[in-house]
Amino acid sequence: MPATEAAAPEPEGHGPATPPPSPPPAAPRRRDKSHYLYLAVIGAVVLGIILGFAAPGVAVELKPLGTGFVNLIKMMISPIIFCTIVLGIGSVRKAAKVGAVGGLALGYFLVMSTVALAIGILVGNLLEPGQGLHLTESVREVGAAQAPKASESTVDFLLGIIPTTLVSAFTSEKVLQTLLVALLVGFALQALGKSGEPVLRGIGHLQKLVFRVLSMIMWAAPVGAFGAMAAVVGETGVDALKSLAVIMIGFYVTCLLFVVLVLGALLRLFARVNILLLLKYLAREFLLILSTSSSESALPRLIAKMEHLGVSRPVVGITVPTGYSFNLDGTAIYLTMASIFVAEAMDQPLSIGQQISLLVFMIVASKGAAGVTGAGLATLAGGLQSHRPELVDGVGLIVGIDRFMSEARALTNFAGNAVATVLVGTWTKEIDKERVDQVLAGKLPFDEKTLLDEGEAGTGDGEADARGAGTHALAGAGAEKDVPEPRDVAGRSSRSGV
Question: How far, in whole angstroms, is CA 157 from its chain's centroid?
Answer without folding.
Answer: 21
